Hints:
Radius of gyration of chain C: 22 Å
Strand order of the largest sheet of chain C: 1-2
Strand content of chain C: under 5%
Oligomer: heterotrimer
Order of helices and strands of chain C: HHHEEHHHHHHHHHHHHHHHHH
Number of helices of chain A: 10
Helix content of chain C: over 70%
Distance between the termini of chain A: 40 Å
Shape of chain A: globular
Number of domains of chain A: 1
Radius of gyration of chain A: 24 Å
Number of helices of chain C: 20
Largest sheet of chain A: none
Largest interface: A-C, 58 and 64 residues
Amino acid sequence: MNLRARTTLFLVSAAALAVIFVLAFLDLPPMGDYRGPYGYVVTQVAVYERHATDVVNAINYDYRAFDTLGEEFILFAAVLGVLLLFRPDDKKGHKRNSNAQEQDELPVSDALRISTQAIMGLMIVFGFYIATHGQLTPGSGFQGGVILASAPILLYLAGNVGAFEKITSSALVKVAECGGAGGYAIIGISALLAGTHFLTNFVPLGTTGDLFSSGTIAVISVCVGVEVTGGFVQLTQIYLRKIVEAELRKKS
Amino acid sequence: MILHVPYFIAAWIFLWGLYGIVTSKNLVHQVVCLAVLQTSTYVLLLTVGYKVGGTAPVFADIPVGTTVVDPLVQALMLTDIVVEATVAALLLAMVVKANELANTIDPEELRILTG
Amino acid sequence: MLTTLIPQPVAIPLIVAAFLALAGQWLGRRFCDALSIATAGATLWMTIVILREVWLQPYTYWFGNWWPRNPQVALGICFSVDAIGASIAMLVALLTTAGLIFSWKIFEDTENHFQPLMLIFMAAMCGFSYTGDLFNLFVFFELMSVSAFALCGLKTLEPAPLQGAYNFAVVNTVGAFMIVLGIGLLYAETGALNFAQIGRSLGTHAGRPVVLAFLLIAVGFMAKAAIVPFHFWLADAHAVAPSPVCVLFSGVMVELGIYAVARIYWTTFHGALAGHITALREIFLILAALTCIVGGFMCYAEHHLKRLLAFSTISHAGLMLAGIALFSPKALGGFLLYALSHGAIKGALFLCAGIVLHRLQKIGEDHLHGRGRGLWFTGALFVLGAWGLAGCWPFGTLLGESMISEDAIAHHQSWVPYLFIFVERLPRPPCCASSFGFFLDGENLRRPMKPLKSKNEPKPNKCTGELRS
């Protein structure tokens, strides 16, 4: 089917779908009129039941922790998929090593180099703060992990490709990713071993508002942060390496 | 009616994203259109959960019992965002690899090449 | 015992997958293969035990111990395991074990990423069959899809696999996000995500948002189930995915899409949409018929062995959709029987195709003609499988088909049995002819060969000479 026929067919169906959407949406409760029981019940009980002040994360890592386990493994499977797609052919292996040595330093301005290295420290601290304070304030393992994973990119932007490669290809990154993913499931299994249901919050809950509170919510949040850091660092490393390879292929 | 506009916006974004996917001539553009389509679900979810006069459902500095917006839809949205990011990463990896092998990122050319 | 066993089919494969992804490169290929087969086998045993326990009485398991304190509101996620879900989970585990055994010692260059992805795929499908929560269903659907996309792109030395995997990914993701829109609408109407709670809140009231929600969710799942007009990704994905993965795609992933529509209808929408049931029945039956016809014709025209089987899956998916489209308990039972037997038979057929590809290095019918003489056991299995797909005794497809047909006649849809005849019996001559053609050199049974494109010129192979002389 050529492009024009496809577009016409789509526009006709989209028009019909738009009409259906409008008619159906008009019957929904208007914005601002939240009626459902779930939100009301959970905002009343979450703080008392779990000593966590951030209800969104209490839902994500406790009430609906099983969903978050699935979501974490979606990231894990996607990283595995990207690694599988970009796995090196054996023939290209030698070429890759020699290319890496040529690219230890890229020419960038001093201002860029100094400012990115300054910001990097700030980003790492901020990432740790977000990842560990999930139970208290907005932000949790996922958000903190992404911030942490973006820090090495600043190294690359600062021109220090060698250091970037060394940090991001270390085995610790892979350990972080697999350990975080497996760790989450193991926390769930340990609840089973402790005699309750899977992913029950069986650790002492602590005082509301403290850093070490809310039981497994904080632990799971840190686990997820570790996994997301590992996963995204691997992704950035493999994508940036592809860019370097493409540049060198163009030059040669 | 005016308070239903955010729902219509969600539908609009969804249909535009779908249009982009159907008529795209560039695989990277198609992946971005897919991401746009996915944002329509965030708009819908957040509109459903909003409560007039409600603040963020974080009781670190407000007493329990204050009117807050629904936290569940925000939790669902977080999951949604992670799903979107990971699917986009995987799709873009496929696009990069296709470009490496076939030297094109036009879906039509790729279809002709692969038969 | 069920309280410890029910989360295991999901949790154990995930943990082992994480372990294999980390330590696989240092532990050696044989160990990884053995561990993944052992995990899949253990999951199979667990799903069988769970099936035995829930056979008569469904069981509800609340994660995090979040059983509803307030009887009106379920805060946590539950697994609501009944005989149908448990049977399908057992089929998942069985096919994954078979696929992993098949892939022993092949895929050497995948750096041990293949087994973790297969295990995650299996865990996701088990979770999908067991779950009783709508958003949890979506999360497992996405987990299943992402591992499927990743597995589909395993062979990346050609652009064709990538294009197949890419189309697969885009269509399924659009379907998935239509499901999220539907979930959002249902949440707006009822404030709940648990199937049973939504069903109870909706009661018998079906406003426009509820109908739209059902439409969106059903379309999303039917895109996964390769129902017309969302069927075009299936053949490409199958042609390019390795055989053990095709076993899972055709054997159970497609069935899960249809099962999800049935599950959601019966637990959530049954009361609300009872008034529209005749219209729904007509719409779904028409879609089923279209799928059967399109799949059947394309199957007839195919030469590539795996694409032929993929189009056969599409037409059988149409039959299974016809089973649930009648929206009655008897037809649902027929659907389950049909799905289980079709899954097992299709899995076996794909493994036979995989053996052919592995031994003869080619998969197009024209290249394979007459070269299968040394593979007589595979040939016999292939013919047996085709026999089973044709709905003949003693396969379960016959029983499933007869239950669905009887129920269709009871609901004044007496054209449905003819659909079964069309899908099952008419394509059998070409399929059997293909098998005979491969394995016995039955020249007279073959249809005339299509002229090949120049890039697919058959290369003469000394095997052919040896076999024919």
